[in-house]
Amino acid sequence: MIAVGLLFLICSFKSILGKEEGFIVGGDFVKSIKKFPHVAFLTLQAADSQDEFICGSSILNQLILVTAAHCFDNIATATASVGNVDREKGKVHRVASWQQHEKWDTVNINHDIALCRLQKPLTLGHTVKRVVLMKRPPKARIADLAGWGVTNEEDYSDTVMLKHTRQKLWTHAQCQRILHNSPRGTICGGESSAKGDFASSGDSGSGLLIGDNIIVGLVSYKDTSVSRSLVIYTDVPYFYDWISHTSKRLSCS
User: Fold this and answer.
1) Cα(30)–Cα(46) distance, integer angstroms
2) Buried-most residue among 48, 130, 216, 250 (CB within 10 A)?
3) What pTM value is reported for the model?
4) Is 186 within a domain?
5) Is the model more confident about 124 or about 160?
C-alpha cells in the first residue's frame, strides 16, 4: 500500500490511489516529434482486469526503453508507440519483456526504475533517437519534460498530443528539506508551491532531460500533502550501473 497523500503519476480510468497522476498540466504542445524523438508512449494491460494504463518512457537503444518500475506492477502485456507527437499515430511495437529493479519497494517508493525490451528493434532516424545516459552528467538548473495525458487535474481532461514543460531541478539534499522522506536515488523537479507547469496523470516514467538528450530523471510520484507541482523523479545517473548491466542482459535474452 502507498501512504495517503502520495500519488503515483500513472493514469488509468480515473482510479483514486495507486496507479494515478502523471501528465503535463500547463506547458506547451510539441509541434514536431523531432524536438523529442527519444520519447515512447506505453500502453499497459492489467493482468487481472480489463484496465489499461499509460506511461511515458525513453529510448535507450534500438531494443531497450527506460521507464518507472511502478508502470509494470501487475501488468500482463504492453506496447510502445514511437515517432509521432500524436500518440495514436506513432509506430507501435510490442514489448517482449521487462525488468523492474530488484529492490523496487512499493511502500517506500525506492528504486522506481524499470527497463523493457521490444520484440523488434526500432529503426532510428530523425523522428526516433536515443537518449544519452551518463554516470556524471553536467550540472544543470533547468530540465525538459515531455509527455502525454492529463492537462487539467480538476476534470482530468487529457490529450493525445505530446506536451512539453521545463522543470526547475532540485538536488536530493534540497528536496529533503521540503519532503523530509524522499528516498535515496531521487531528485525533485518543479516548484514547491502550487504554480507553474508540472507532471500529472500519465507521465509516469517520462524522461527528464538536460542539454536536449541527456536523461537525468524519470517521473515517479508526488507527495500531494506538500505540493501538487513538486515532482519526485528517479535519479537516472544514480542507477547507471544497474541500467548498463540490465540492458545488456535484456538485449541478449
Assistant:
1) 29
2) 216
3) 0.86
4) no
5) 124
